[in-house]
């Protein structure tokens, strides 16, 4: 069984997900908040989707982390994801409403990206709905830039997906 | 005061509005996304047209006039397939572009307005090039005009960079500029 690395940031802990975390995320996927993920997403599909991002750890050596604050409150997830329909490794995030507005997503995503760089992943993208202003702004805060030439996930169009490319390690120094 | 009509709703109607929005054209440049308006754009729109910056667009407007203007400009999309575009810049709104026919106009017009924060970064030019290319290549317009106040040196300089020809319109000093399709090829 692959052990999922624990990362500590200034205020947060990135750790392996629990079943309870998945249940909360399934609630999110079934709600209005999933409108930028093609949602709302039926629970059966959501559970399998989320579980596959946990399974990626065993299969690929990277995957989704739970994000927890200093009080142990679950805030959402961040991950390095590459399901079969993604042409590149994606840095992705899904934050619960209670986690908004405090810079948690920036802190967690930055830590995940740094971890990926340390393991030699230099080409990292985020696939973002062009209507998802919050995520576009987050990608920009992380130093990513739009890449209009980048390949899209299979089956998606430019009306649904904008690709932001994260700076390679050397570019950030 | 912010009224319910100006704020995003939740539930099925909001999802329907988003689905409609996705059907409409979107232009992507190196840094920007030009897209049809969403209700959350109104705050920025009002911020511009209700201020000093709105004086060139029959402003400054009151808040109620701004909503009426925004709704009217957005409503032309289902009628003609274009009109008011929001300039999206990494999740924020840099401003707006207008393409098309004013109520009594005989020729299509191009106009833009930026937020103060968006100035000085080449955004107006990047958005203008994308909008003018769309007007010529997709909407099939061979010529567009703009009206620019004589004192608006930034807009005049941009028009020159975009290859416009200049004509003085009237004694108040408004300059009429004309873009032709081949000048932007």
Quick summary:
Chain A has 173 residues and is of the alpha+beta class. Helix content of chain A is 31%, strand content 22%. Chain A contains four helices and eight strands.
Features:
heterodimer; A: 173 residues; 8-stranded mixed beta sheet; 4 helices; 22% strand; B: alpha+beta; 5-stranded antiparallel beta sheet; 3-stranded antiparallel beta sheet; 8 strands; 24% strand
What does this structure look like?
The complex is a heterodimer of chains A (173) and B (185). With 173 residues, chain A is an alpha+beta fold. Chain A is 31% helix and 22% strand. Chain A starts with 6 loop residues before the first strand and ends in an 8-residue tail after the last strand. In chain A, helix 3 (104-118) links the parallel strand 5 (89-95) and strand 6. An eight-stranded mixed sheet of chain A has the order 1-2-3-4-5-6-8-7, with helices on both faces. The longest helix of chain A is centred in the N-terminal third of the chain and has 18 residues, at 43-60. Chain B has 185 residues and is of the alpha+beta class. Chain B has helices spanning 12-23, 42-49, 63-80, 123-137, 153-161, and strands at 27-28, 32-35, 84-89, 92-100, 109-114, 143-149, 165-168, 174-180. A five-stranded antiparallel sheet of chain B has the order 1-2-3-4-5, with helices on both faces. In chain B, strand 4 (92-100) and strand 5 (109-114) form a beta hairpin. The termini of chain B are far apart. Classes of the chains: A alpha+beta (173), B alpha+beta (185).
How much helix is in the residues of chain A?
25-40%
**Helix/strand/pairing category of chain A:** alpha+beta
Tell me the greatest interface: A-B, 20 and 19 residues
Distance between the termini of chain A: 35 Å
String of helices and strands of chain A = EEHHEEEHEHEE
* Helix share bin of chain B: 25-40%
Question: What is the count of DSSP helices of chain B, taking H or I runs of 4+ residues?
Answer: 5
